[in-house]
Design a protein that fits this description.
Elements: H1 2-15, E1 20-23, E2 26-29, E3 31-34, E4 37-51, E5 54-65, H2 72-77, E6 82-88, E7 92-93, H3 95-109, H4 114-126, E8 131-132, E9 136-142, E10 146-151, E11 154-159, H5 162-173, H6 180-186
Antiparallel strand pairs: 1-2, 3-4, 4-5, 5-6, 6-9, 7-8, 9-10, 10-11
Helix pairs in contact: 3-4, 3-5
Length: 189
């Protein structure tokens, strides 16, 4: 009888472990592997675009880090692997809107670095196409390599530089994110 009790307790404890998280119908694994590094899901949030009085849910994003952190400055300064995964919810987001959003995000959160980043931002913007419901984009920074861009399951290229990665991740974690709830969610708050 005691053995059965131990088995039941073990099952209950193991059942409480989190292997994936879900938000707005999007499930993301608790961990991903990038090269030899294991990254943990730090948090998830929803990109909401305000149009008139309506909030349009554009995508669910998940932030993966080597160790959980709620400090955006420390995350941005750390030269370590990190990944943003975006699952698009809206029926269609045109390439022009995406390019406009990326450029605006860089300008708002890294204005002093725009001249140094412009050519790489142009390359990055060139990778994008229209994104529809269910499409996924994965942006992975690997120190010494750069930011790997994967869109709809296809590796588009790598953008070199830790400075580019900082500016890119600052779009979500910097002082002027697309929406504050998205930033808070990615920080696990």
């Amino acid at each position: 009888m005691r053995r059965i009790g131990m088995v039941v307790l073990a099952v209950m404890l193991l059942g409480g472990l989190v292997y994936a998280k879900e938000l707005q119908g999007v499930t993301m694994p608790d961990q991903v592997t990038v090269g030899s590094a294991t990254l943990t899901l730090n948090g998830m949030g929803v990109r909401i675009k305000k149009v008139a009085f309506i909030g349009i849910k554009v995508y669910v994003a998940g932030l993966y880090l080597p160790a959980r952190s709620s400090n955006p400055e420390a995350i941005l300064k750390a030269d370590e692997p990190k990944q943003i995964v975006m699952h698009f919810l809206y029926k269609e987001v045109g390439k022009d809107k995406l390019v406009e959003g990326w450029t605006e995000g860089f300008q708002k959160n890294s204005p002093g670095e725009m001249a140094a980043l412009k050519a790489r931002l142009d390359t990055f913007n060139g990778y994008w196409s229209d994104m529809k419901t269910g499409d996924v984009a994965v942006l992975t920074y690997v120190p010494g390599t750069g930011t790997k861009v994967e869109i709809k399951g296809q590796e588009m290229g790598v953008i070199e530089g830790a400075d580019f990665a900082r500016a890119l991740f600052a779009i979500w974690l910097g002082p002027k994110p697309p929406n504050e709830e998205l930033k808070e969610g990615l920080l696990g708050k």
